[in-house]
Amino acid sequence: MKKWMELLLAAALVGCGRGSDSAEAAGSVLAASDFEAVEGWMGDLATPSLTKEKAHSGTHSVAVRPGVDYGIGYSNALGKMSVSRPEKVKLTAWVFVPSAQVSTNLVVEVRDPGAAQALLWQGIDLKKEVKKFNEWQQLEKVITIPNTAKPDAIFKMYLWHAGGEQPVYLDDVTLTAANDEK
What we know:
This protein is mostly beta strands.
């Protein structure tokens, strides 16, 4: 299962590219995806979390539900995300949480290659973050990158379904350098 999840995260990189040269020069956008560009680039790889059921923008989003515990996300070495080491990363995303009866986290993880334990694992509990259920809402979180993270440390972001019967959706994800954020 772990290899399959890593393959999905790696394949999601196709849809999560770096920002434009001007945005990169300004030091802001590290990656962004609306999940529109993922379909078709993953070949025969099954992507059960990519859906057209509901989207904040465009036609695609990521959904987790019973039987689809992990959504495609983002995975990249810190040293490839930015020309300088990010101290903090601001995660902005649109989420659709149908009710308080679902348990879903937006996970951010930083891990040294081959390490058994993550340098950082933060599960953002979506039912605690949203103000209203059953509508799209923007989520913003600033993640502090551990000082011990080296350029080859892997930054991952993905949706994790931990319980409940209804689907939870993720769309329009942006990661920006946020070294000045608190």
